[in-house]
Amino acid sequence: MMAEAGLAALWLATAFALLQLVLAAVGVAIAMRTEAAELARGVVHVSARETASELMRAVRPVAVVQGVLVVVAFAALVAVFVSSDMSVLLVVDNSHSLKPLIYKIAGTWGNHEGSMLLWVMVLGLAGAFVALAERSLDAKTLTATLGAQALIALGFYAYLAFASNPFTRINPAPADGNGLNPLLQDPGLAFHPPTLYLGYVGLSVAFSFAVGALVTREVGPRFARAMRPWALGAWILLTIGITAGSYWAYYELGWGGWWFWDPTENASLMPWLAATALLHSVTVLATRDGLRAWTIMLAVVAFSMSMVGTFLVRSGVLVSVHAFAVDPTRGTFLLGLLALYIGGALLLFGARIGTVTAGTTFELVSREAGLVLNNLLLSVVLGIVLIGTIYPVIAQAMGVQLSIGPPFFNKTAGPIALVLMIALAGGPLLRWRRDSARTLGRRMLVPMGASALALLVLLIAAPGIGLMPLLGLMLAPGLAVGSVMPLVGRNLLRTPLYIWGMVIAHVGVAVAVAGMASDTAFTRERLVALHVGDSTDVGPFQVTLKSIAPALGANWSALEAELVVAERGSSFTLKPQQRFFSAPPQVTNESAIKTLWNGQLYTVLGREDAGRWQLRLWWKPFVTLIWAGGGMIAIGGMVSLLGRLRRERRVAKRQLPAEALA
Amino acid sequence: MKGMLLITALLLAPVAALADSNLPPAHYAYVQLPDPKQEAAAKALMAELRCLVCQGQSIADSDAELAGDMRALVRERIARGETPKQIRAWLIQRYGDYVTYDPPFDAATAPLWIAPLVLLGAGIWLARRSFKRRRKAA
Amino acid sequence: MKRWLLWVPLVLFVAATAVAIYALRQPQDRLIRSRMVGQPLPAFDLPALVPGKPGLSSRDFTTGKPKLLNVMASWCVPCIAEAPQLMRLRQAGVEVDAIAIRDTPEDAQTFLTRNGDPYLRMGSDTKSAVQLALGSSGVPETFVVDGHGKIVGQHIGDIHDDDVEALLAALARAR
Question: Is the pTM of this model over 0.90?
Fold first, then answer.
């Protein structure tokens, strides 16, 4: 019953999305045509205006209802998983009655169909939220935006209905399910996909805004101010999702790696890069009315990258540890949707953008120019990641089997990222519209001094680390100092929140890069096979294998090693495990990590051979800075968003409620 | 206590069957070379070689047996004095460019390696257009 | 000059879509083929694994008669599936030699007793060294080697009924 209710809710949501699209399309069309006719002939068409107005007014509640319906559908799927209803095929394939509750719930989206339903739910909710909360944009553009959102939703509803139905029944129902992949039975699953999807789909709102603005030709500061919180919000969520995913892979996979340039990882990085460029660009549009074409294009590109990522991960075109169970039919459908949305948006862009570019001009040395450089470098990195990810497919067309991984990306995107750090340090120190290179040079003296000092220290204390880590560790302090400089000389209590946000986020970048460089340069690894009672050393620590004992969990059994770690007087214990699952049968390594102020001791238990137990130990100085930095970037974004929203609310309160758009 | 260990050992047995052969891993699959410089060179090479039986991992990150044997091969050869370049070339001779995560520069991969420069150039050219108008207006 | 620029993104996207369509229509070929096909067999000398059966070396392939080299293991399940086909080939007069990957004498003997023994020689490769030298990436695989020690063909995976004819033809061509 529950599954059928969910499916029914999904179909109803589809119907409402269709209604939303039709109302929006007709309403906006009449409104625009009426305006054009009025301009041409100078006559006011009252009845046409009223019709248009009514149609457009109806779109908001329809969007809200659609959102509610799709939430109901998703709730039904969660209910089916929680009750371990084995008559539903998806539950059989991906769940088991003995699983802990949190993984029954999280298992809902730990598979292709469920995660697509999550995607569509966020899409519907975002549309509903825009319909409820957006007050400052003019009626036409807002309606066009909601119409675009409905169009996107329709495509995905169709995908779910025809190619990925999560509610399919299986008859006869088996006794129990196949269980959830043990690698996914981790709190990370409860957290990482939903945050990422909120980010991906949040970008769809920016995309819809861009399409709406192109349709009504309203590409100006007002539109930018309406789109900005969505771009910023989506970007914050993507930052959190990627950071969390990286940390999850780091402690779960048992090798101490935190990024591999795997196609699925790249699929999340590409929208993030576009969204970073977008959120900087939209601010220029909002405050200076510049970079119109860039902003629109970036909004289109950002969501396109979300969709390209979804396609890559679910179609089976690329090999990845993270990929979902593959199916070319699903891939074809997704490709069709991709072609429709991105192709349509790019067509619209080509046709319309010529009539909207204007905006103010700026000098070669100015903050706008700095932001153009920022956009440029981010786009280049995005292009490199995209080409590097899909090139194996192109090569296969030429009959060549290739592998492209960290060596390629580090050599190409790495240097550009370093240049970007310098731009990041200098950009906020430039004035708008026009500045002089000499003034910039003067302001950059302190950050450059910090970098020079860092270089000196590194060359003396840590000779022999590679060039890239050296550059990273040298630039990071410079960037940190440069990022804080906009605060110097200001009354800190009266500084707008968005400046605080910028400072925190940029310092976060410096912190993250410092962590990455430190991990590359200073990690100490020890692989040993020890008898119980033996000791070894790694970094500044002495590690003794005290015992091996069995351990039991809810749906696993394990062998647990007790490691006694000593360092200059202090000591602590770590208990890495080798876990054995039965449904499905799999062995996983549960690493044991000790986090200290200056790094992490990462320990993994391996197999036993002739009485000796294999141990993998790493001392990773300052590796936590990577994710701390990521967190700071997200926090900076949140502070900024808070500041913008408060400012908008204050401005809205002051304005007379002139355009009461129901 | 012994009983628990026995039960766990029994649990281990079916899992071992899933984990391929019954032989222990090669010596240098999980043991480092004594010389730190050699070990660092070996480690760097292992991170760039692809595991042939995995879904997109390097041999440095995989518990698969063949990956372990490849790690042992790399370490033994480095210990014997071979350079990483020689070892990589030997493997490419047998498995093609698929086995290395660092694509070579040849006719098939030229577009890949040139792309960053092309992108940079195109980007700079596009960006310059934002300023050109200014000069014309002046 | 500026107008055409606006259409570049669309053109690029269409090109990328074309590549994607092509990729989707390709059959999923994840096999890693050996690059040693067409090259001489790498020199190797493997000790014997089971009593009564000699070990295997690369010199055994320069006798003038084309042979099959079967890379297998007792712990490999598809190897059990291909045992009948290998017996068929043996009965057709084909000489089959084996390299057993990471195997023990007891397990290998049990495997041969249980599934039939088509092999003239069986070499023990406990570290996958020869497997790697051959460019083989898993078990079972079968190499067709001509009488002068040159690899002329590779069959990846277990040998099915319909593969037997192809292998016989390859051996005939290698003469």
Answer: yes
